[in-house]
Amino acid sequence: MDIKKLTIINIVLIIAVVILFVMHFACGGNCANPDAASSEGGDSDSSKVEMVKHDGAGARIAWVNSDTVSKYYLATTALQNGLMEEQAAAEAQLKALEDKYMKKEKAFADVAKILGPTEYQMKLQELETLQNEYVQTQQVLQMKLAQIEQDKYYGFFELTHKYMREIGKELGYDYIFSYRLEGQLIYANKDHDVTYEVIDMLNDAYEHAGE
């Protein structure tokens, strides 16, 4: 069923959204533009890369491991669970229609040989109508799920963007970059890793939202 394929797509998109929001800047005053960046060799820890501090530019830079943020950020889990619940409800609705069709099909097969031509065509038409209803319902649910996904992702991104601006300012950084395996960042100073600080602050903001 096509709807079931949305589970994997949802998970991939959630991770992608987390990666997007973490690569974020929050300027407390006037952000300086670094003129140059220096890089060093590789790191034995393949899950982390450090951002080199630009001493001459005066910008305060930090980074987070976006895979770790995605794993422990409560809003990510809530988003994923919400999408899976919507998908489960859609699958249950389709399963009910499928069971109804199978029941009618079996009943039709049991009596088909003794039905007259007119009644036979009526029963056959009922099955075709039910089959069409299933296909149409599947298409409607797919469009509905796609819209729900879009709305939930937008709300997630908007809320997290707000949190990250506040966190960036509170921590006093001009830039907070994201890193993940096979990403663009290669190496930098571990002293600027604020992954778990950001996770704690994101979760605290999420848990106390609306207070």
Describe the structure.
The protein is mainly alpha-helical and 211 residues long. The chain has one domain. Helix content is 62%, strand content 6%. It is built from 5 helices and 3 strands. It has helices spanning 6-22, 66-72, 74-111, 117-171, 195-207, and strands at residues 24-25, 61-65, 175-179. Strands 1-3-2 form a 3-stranded mixed β-sheet. Helix 1 (6-22) runs parallel beside helix 4 (117-171) and helix 4 (117-171) crosses helix 5. The longest helix has 55 residues, at 117-171. Mean pLDDT is 78; it is low at 23-56.
Summed up, what is this model?
The chain is mainly α. It is about 60% helix and about 5% strand.
Q: How do the strands line up in the largest sheet?
A: 1-3-2
Question: Uncertain spans, ≥5 residues at pLDDT below 50?
Answer: 23-56
Q: What percent of the residues sit in helical stretches (DSSP H or I)? A: 55-70%
What is the overall pLDDT average?
A: 78
* Whole-number count of domains: 1
Largest sheet: 3 strands, mixed
- What spatial form do the alpha-carbon principal axes imply? rod-shaped
What is the β-strand count?
A: 3
Describe the SSE topology.
Layout: H1 6-22, E1 24-25, E2 61-65, H2 66-72, H3 74-111, H4 117-171, E3 175-179, H5 195-207
Parallel strand pairs: 2-3
Antiparallel strand pairs: 1-3
Helix pairs in contact: 1-2, 1-3, 1-4, 2-5, 3-4, 4-5
